[in-house]
Amino acid sequence: MKISLKILRCIAGISVLLLVAGCVTHPTSSTVQPWPGAPPDGYATFLMYCNPSGRNGPLVSIDDTAAFKMRGNSYTWIYVKAGEHRLRTKWVWLMSGLNLDTKITFAAGKSYYTKLLVSNDGNPYVMTIRSGLLDVPEQVARKQAGTCWYRKPSVQQIDAVSEQSAKSNL
User: Fold this and answer.
1) How far is CA 105 from CA 32, 55, 64, 66, in A?
2) Which among 31, 60, 28, 65 is positioned nearest to 47, based on CA atoms?
3) Is residue 35 part of a domain?
4) What is the pLDDT of residues 106-145, one digit of tens each?
């Protein structure tokens, strides 16, 4: 059975269109959320974004409250009560070595812009994946997160302050 050259060209053209449509990496302007405004009194704004594509990102918790789930090419923000907080990321079990556990202090009225970094060492035989957090200036965050999808957080704000921070403020 012979397949005509015309049919093969048509199939190839459709395949290319489907591949290109699937590779669009930035949202339309109708899906981009407005940039967060000033935080409420006594709170800070915490915006996090991640540019690499991929479905599985970590669950981000602040003081054991699940704040949001990151995905590749997405951003979100929440308001966090001023003071010291424990920030943790929890990846799926296959990538649990990427989990982070750190303390961060938020000042009232300030905005914090953080990029979730995920990288590998580029070795084609043994892949080593690393994760980290990078604080960036607002201008950089606006440019990079502006090409990402907005993800609604699990909570709008974190009200608790870690016990250690509360004791140090007395």
Assistant:
1) 28, 29, 16, 18
2) 60
3) yes
4) 999 999 999 988 776 666 676 666 778 889 999 999 999 8
Is 12 in a helix, a strand, or coil? Answer: helix
Residue holding tokens 């035989």?
Answer: 125
The helix/strand/coil state of 81 is strand
In a domain, 20, yes or no: no
Flag whether 10 is in a domain: no
Are 118 and 129 spatial neighbours (Cβ–Cβ below 8 Å)? yes
Q: How many domains are contained in the chain?
A: 1
Whole domain around residue 134: which residue ranges? 28-168
Tokens of 33: 């959320």
Burial 9-35 (b: 16+ CB within 10 A, else e): eeeeeeeeeeeeeeeeeebeeeebeee
In one letter, which amino acid is 135? D
- Could you give the CA distance from residue 103 to residue 4 in angstroms, rounded to a whole number? 64
- How many beta carbons lie within 10 A of that of residue 146, not counting itself? 14
- How many angstroms separate the CA atoms of 104 and 84, rounded? 6
To which H or E segment does residue 26 belong?
A: none
Residue 14 confidence (pLDDT) above 70:
no
Instruction: Check: CB of residue 126 under 8 Å from CB of residue 51.
Output: no
- Answer whether 146's CB lies under 8 Å from 74's CB: no
